[in-house]
C-alpha cells in the first residue's frame, strides 16, 4: 500500500508540475507533414485509461481487458501507473514518469522516475482512431536499459517469462 501511494504521489506531482506548460493550438487545416505531426502531437495529450491490450507472440496472441493502466501525456512529459497482473495472482504495479519525444509516428519515453529498477527509454509506435482512442505498440528491440547490455526482448516481445504486451488500446478520460 505504501508503494502504491508513493507511486501515485509521484505520478500526480509530475502531472501538476508540468500542467502549467503552455499548449500551442493549431488553427489551420494544412496537410503538410509538420502540421499533421503537430496535430497528432496535441491529440495524444491528455489522460488515458487502458481499454484492452494484446499480449503474446504472433502464434500465441490474445487480448486482455483485465489490466489496469493509466497514462497522462502532457506537452513534453508523461506519467504512467499500471497493474498488469493477470487473474487472481497477487497484485503488482509499476509506475514511471519522465519526458517523451514524438516524431509523428513513434513516441520515445525517457524514464526520469520509476518504480522498477532500470531507468532508460522505451519506444512505441503511436496512432489514433478518432480523437478518443490512442494505440501504443511497444518496440522492444529499441528499448534502452542501462546496465542491461544486449539483454532485450525480440521485436515480437518474446522473453523467457510470460507474455509481453504488443499493443495497448487506450480511451480518453477527459
Task: Summarize the topology.
Layout: H1 2-18, H2 33-43, E1 46-55, E2 62-64, E3 68-73, E4 77-83, E5 94-102, E6 106-114, E7 121-129, E8 133-138, E9 165-172
Antiparallel strand pairs: 1-2, 1-3, 1-9, 3-4, 4-5, 5-6, 6-7, 7-8, 8-9
Structure description:
The chain contains 2 helices and 9 strands, in the order ααβββββββββ. The chain has 174 residues and is of the alpha+beta class. The longest helix has 17 residues, at 2-18. It is globular, with a radius of gyration of 16 Å.
Order of strands, widest sheet: 1-3-4-5-6-7-8-9
Tell the overall outline: globular
Q: Could you tell me how far the N terminus lies from the C terminus, measured between alpha carbons in angstroms?
A: 27 Å
Q: Give the strand tally.
A: 9
**Discrete helix count:** 2
List the main descriptive attributes of the protein structure presented here.
globular, 174 residues, eight-stranded antiparallel β-barrel, alpha+beta
